[in-house]
Write a structure and sequence with these properties.
The chain is an alpha+beta fold and 254 residues long. The protein has helices spanning 75-82, 86-92, 103-113, 120-136, 149-158, 166-173, 177-188, 192-210, 215-221, 227-238, 242-253, and strands at residues 5-10, 15-17, 23-30, 32-36, 39-43, 47-51, 57-60, 65-71, 97-100, 139-140.
């Protein structure tokens, strides 16, 4: 383990291995498909995965991604550096997890990614800040925390043109499809697929108002197989056809 913090680029080439030390992988750009001990998740902006020591894991990124990786030093370093936070940090690192960051934690990750993390002082202090923050205020995908809606929104937006299933979103949270569906309905008042549909239609509305793209092209970009299906969905959601919505936007801008 040469450095505590490092920036890493991932591609479609699959990486599969294990190592003695624990590791945290923070999403910066793109999506990294990750599997730890048989549990799948995606690492995107404002999210991370925890890889316990000696745990087999695999990852790959078909479209390319960049992540900040924290290779956790031995227990002695945790105790010496984190003091009262050491025990909670060790517990956090004991089992695989898919987590989402608070805005402040995400800001810290972005700052470190733009810093000279090859400097040992910056790397050690940055790692200590991240671990202490996560140990005391971690927005987990587990039962006691709310779902990571920001990360889910990002994933839906990035995959709007492609078929999406509840299982695809559930994998981001580490929950089963059934449990995710129940949690999502409880927290948002919508089923996951109703939420996806509304978000796609909102994207379509923004493209209608902000671009000159043909309606059929917009329909494809937000996941509709035909212009007629997109038009019918817009009429149900907003009470108007694409032509009317586009004309109203032009009239309002005059």
């Amino acid at each position: 383990m040469s450095s505590i913090l490092s920036l890493r680029q991932y591609s479609h080439d699959l990486i599969a291995h294990s190592h003695d030390h624990a590791q945290m992988v923070f999403g910066l750009i793109g999506q990294l498909d990750f599997e730890v001990a048989g549990h799948g998740s995606q690492v995107i902006r404002q999210s991370l995965v925890v890889v316990p020591g000696a745990t087999h894991h695999a990852c790959g990124s078909p479209s390319g991604s960049q992540c900040l990786v924290l290779d956790v030093p031995p227990t002695e370093w945790l105790q010496h550096t984190l003091g009262p936070h050491a025990d909670s940090s060790r517990r956090l690192l004991e089992k695989p997890a898919a987590l989402t960051l608070s805005p402040a934690q995400n800001q810290l990750v972005n700052w470190l990614a733009a810093s000279p993390i090859n400097d040992p002082v910056i790397a050690q202090q940055g790692a200590a800040l991240l671990l202490a923050s996560l140990a005391t205020d971690c927005h987990s995908a587990g039962e006691s925390q709310r779902l990571p809606l920001a990360a889910l929104d990002t994933y839906i937006d990035q995959h709007a043109a492609h078929p999406l299933q509840v299982a695809d979103l559930a994998r981001l949270t580490g929950l089963s499809s059934a449990r995710f569906h129940a949690r999502f309905l409880s927290e948002t008042g919508q089923t996951p697929m109703d939420y996806v549909r509304s978000r796609r239609l909102q994207q379509g509305l923004e493209l209608l108002r902000g671009t000159q793209l043909a309606v059929g092209e917009i329909a494809a970009q937000v996941g509709y197989s035909s212009q007629s299906a997109f038009t019918a969905a817009l009429a149900r959601e907003f009470g108007a056809t694409p032509r009317t919505l586009r004309r109203e936007s032009r009239d309002n801008s005059r």
